[in-house]
Amino acid sequence: MTPEDRILPLEGVENFRDYGGYAVPGGLRVVRGRLWRSAHHGAATEADLARIAGLGLAAVVDLRRPTERANQPSRRPAGFGGQVIDCDHGDQAEPPHVAFLRETDLSAESARAFFRDYYRKAPFEPRHQELFSRYFEALDAGRPVLIHCTAGKDRTGLLAALTHHLLGVDEADLLADFELTNLAARIEARLPQVTESMTESLGRRPSETAVRAFLGVDRTYLAEAFGAIRREAGSVEAYLAGLGVDAGRAEALRRTWLEPAQA
Known about the structure:
alpha/beta; five-stranded mixed β-sheet
């Protein structure tokens, strides 16, 4: 399964892709076609909704804050009957990245520094922990699940990486999936429009390298998150146990979400 094979190209939803299919020791792999991740669905077209309907999603985990959901309401396929998991706690009048954009020098390095700091804190946000815990509950059923936030790269990327760690995906593949945002989010194609939008809203023109850094991800961000988890919780396994995924439940999830590699 190539990186390009993972991407579901849609008209109005960015970064939509399958995060299953990765190899696991013992001749196994993560089940394909049942674990999906994306950016928000506020601009989904009718054609997009038809394709999403075909995935048979049993649960959608919306990691966004209430104000984000209100600003870009999700469009869903007609008759969608799956579970929607979201959280109204911990809202902010101004999301952290907005304050960053307003106050920073808009350099690529300041963007990277912002994200490194964000990833150190994100695993311990109470609202994230609630949503992550409910996501793992949804995985118990073994049915198709979609996780998304606004851009589908930071909150979503962290949760997908925790899933891969739990299931035994090799670190190289875990990081490759995280960095696939840099292809799936069509950064170069969107760069001119996003640059103009930021210039208009901020009254200053950011450099293209800064916009790229803001739209993309770097594996060092994930290293910051996992490093913070190990410092604070002792291990990733202990952190997951705090979300309700103890050793027994982790093994049950592996039985549910792993299949023979030749299946």
